[in-house]
Write a structure and sequence with these properties.
- By secondary structure, this protein is an alpha+beta fold.
- It is about 30% helix and about 25% strand.
- The chain has 16 helices and 22 strands.
- The strands form 5 sheets. Strands 6-9-10-22-21-20-17-11 form an 8-stranded mixed beta sheet, sandwiched between helices. A 5-stranded mixed β-barrel has the order 1-2-3-5-4. The protein has a 5-stranded antiparallel beta sheet with strand order 12-13-16-14-15, with helices on both faces.
- Helix 4 packs across helix 6 and helix 9 crosses helix 11.
- The protein is globular.
């Protein structure tokens, strides 16, 4: 039905007859001439109809936005005065000779221009229309090119694309599973995979030493701008490669991807330990474009008569940190109060502050509600450590170390944006040396997942002191966003059993859930390591979208619903009976 895509017609086609199909982006009837902007996935082209062909002209006069049409016409150059430098096809136009309306369009339920102000609910309900917008179409086409480039790189480096099951068994990977009831085994359930983790490890045991898969994963968790119940991973696993080799290979892939797709050279990725990242930035995925850093000052405040400072300063699990904001002395009291409310979201009980109005005046040039609790020596040392200058403000976080890191780390990001402090466009890094475990409510939990290997210890040494052990794990971070995470895996049964015991998984439970893995570890398992990238996040960053929903064809809402198909929905009672499932109806509150 077509000879060319609309966006591909150019000056080399002048004088040629072309056949185009697509949608009317805009129609303008200027009395004696009808101009159409015809659109397909590759772009727009201007089509001109004049009264010389009355029948065709009359049809063109009836067109509205989003009519699906076929156009036949002659390509001609535009006069110099009419060249549109903003359009890919701005040097030419098509003189229409024939026009067929393939399908008319009713009045549209949402705006289609790039300045549309449709609600997200509208955009998702009419996603097939939203995806026609050039901005959205370009993102999905860009995504396809990225996956193609990834496949080319991995194929050329000896990786095999191998599919793993979607119907599998529930595993403890940190989020709730989506369960699928079994009809043939009533009362039993499959789970949709949170990742192909165990299967890719089994593939390493099977001798396929370089595996990859661009795969759907599922997690029933609370959603944010960069989370979805179903998402796509670039999943990679290798045998006989160290963590350093895996990092080098995947860094090579990511650098090549940015160079090919964006003509951006990311350069070498610096390394930073987890402890350093948390100490300096309050985050294990720091945005290095932001020059602000947290500075520890607890040692200066242990003896002050201000419990807000001295309490955490003398607590082994406490922390007092200072954050200097250049030019921040201009903040109003209301703005400081807004920052105080902001850190409260992350559990902070308050936010102390110190304005450096004039450094040359000593204490007289400093304004702070906590100044009366601090002597000149302490104030001078705080100023020295933070590097504060006249016109700056120093903000203080004092609480449990985890609260200080989370609240002040978030404040650091907000202040960096508010004060336009970001430097450079792309700042990648590797974060390494994560703790093996974290303690939550008295129990150990795996920081990555329970199949991650510790670094440099035996199983007995790990069990003797699990709290202080470091994992052989690594995260790739870009502009404060975790692109992917991976680790060296446990490849012997003794170590895997020890990790399960530390996590409170009994031998019987381990056998029931992971018996196949523990048995497989007995038969010559090679050392192996891997990494999984979040494809949606990568595309979001590369296209500068604000949400991964804008780089997915058919995403869910923040409540994990699909307005387009009205999913989830109620099941047919007959289906439920076949599955042996009874639905418990939500209780309805009644007035007393």
């Amino acid at each position: 039905m077509r000879s060319h895509y609309c966006g591909d017609v150019n000056k080399s086609h002048v004088g040629q007859e072309v056949t185009l199909v697509g949608w009317v982006n805009r129609s303008r009837d200027l009395g004696g001439v009808v101009f159409l902007d015809l659109r397909d996935r590759e772009g727009l082209v201007q089509v001109v109809y004049d009264p010389d062909l009355p029948e065709v002209f009359n049809v063109a006069s009836t067109l509205r936005a989003e009519f699906c049409v076929q156009v036949k016409g002659l390509v001609r150059a535009r006069p110099d005065s009419q060249v549109n430098g903003q359009m890919k096809t701005g040097e030419i136009e098509v003189l229409g000779k024939a026009l067929t309306i393939i399908n008319a369009a009713d009045p549209l339920p949402l705006s289609m221009d790039n300045y549309q102000n449709n609600s997200e609910e509208q955009r998702l309900k009419y996603r097939y229309l939203d995806l026609r917008r050039p901005e959205m179409a370009q993102r999905l086409m860009f995504r396809a090119k990225v996956t193609s480039a990834v496949r080319r790189f991995l194929d050329s480096n000896g990786f095999l694309d191998i599919e793993t099951p979607i119907l599998t068994k529930a595993t403890p990977e940190g989020a709730r599973d989506y369960l699928v009831p079994s009809r043939t085994y009533k009362g039993q359930f499959f789970a949709l995979p949170q990742s192909p983790q165990l299967f890719k490890q089994l593939l390493m045991m099977s001798g396929f030493d370089r595996y990859y898969q661009i795969v759907k994963c599922f997690r029933d968790e609370d959603l944010r701008a960069d989370r979805q119940p179903e998402f796509t991973q670039i999943d990679i696993e290798t045998s006989f490669m160290t963590s350093e080799q895996v990092m080098a290979k995947t860094e090579e892939m990511m650098r090549g991807l940015f160079l090919e797709m964006l003509n951006v050279d990311l350069g070498e990725f610096p390394r930073m330990t987890y402890n350093e990242a948390m100490r300096r930035f309050g985050s294990d995925k720091p945005d290095l474009r932001n020059p602000l850093e947290l500075v520890d000052i607890a040692d200066l405040l242990k003896g002050v008569e201000f419990a807000v400072f001295s309490g955490p300063a003398n607590d082994e699990e406490g922390r007092v940190a200072a954050l200097r904001i250049p030019g921040g002395a201009a903040l109003s009291r209301k703005q400081i109060d807004d920052y105080t409310k902001f850190v409260g979201i992350y559990g902070a009980k308050g936010l102390a502050w110190m304005k450096i109005n004039d450094l040359s005046l000593g204490l007289e040039g400093i304004q702070s509600p906590v100044l009366k609790f601090l002597n000149e020596s302490i104030v001078n040392e705080i100023i020295s450590r933070t590097g504060a200058q006249t016109g700056d403000i120093i903000l203080f976080g004092a609480d449990q170390a985890t609260v200080v890191a989370e609240s002040m780390g978030a404040l650091r990001l907000k202040a960096g944006e508010d004060f336009n402090l970001l430097q450079g466009e792309w700042r990648p890094l590797w974060v390494v040396d994560f703790p093996m475990f974290e303690k939550i409510n008295g129990s150990f939990h795996a920081v990555h997942h329970p199949f991650t290997a510790p670094r440099g210890v035996t199983a007995a040494e790990l069990e003797a002191n699990p709290a202080n052990r470091v994992s052989d794990a690594y995260d790739m971070v870009l502009n404060g966003c975790e692109l992917g995470g991976g680790s060296v895996r446990i490849h012997n049964q003794e170590m895997q059993s020890a990790v399960f015991r530390i996590l409170g998984i009994t031998d019987d439970e381990a056998k029931e859930k992971f018996g196949f893995l523990l048995e497989a570890l007995r038969y010559g398992t090679p050392p192996h390591a891997g990494l999984a990238f979040g494809l949606d996040r990568i595309i979001m960053l590369m296209t500068k979208a604000t949400s991964i929903r804008d780089v997915m064809a058919f995403p869910k809402t923040t409540t994990a619903a699909c307005p387009l198909t009205n999913a989830p929905g109620f099941a047919n009672p007959q289906q439920l009976a076949e599955l042996g499932i009874a639905v418990v109806e939500k209780a309805v509150k009644t007035e007393a």
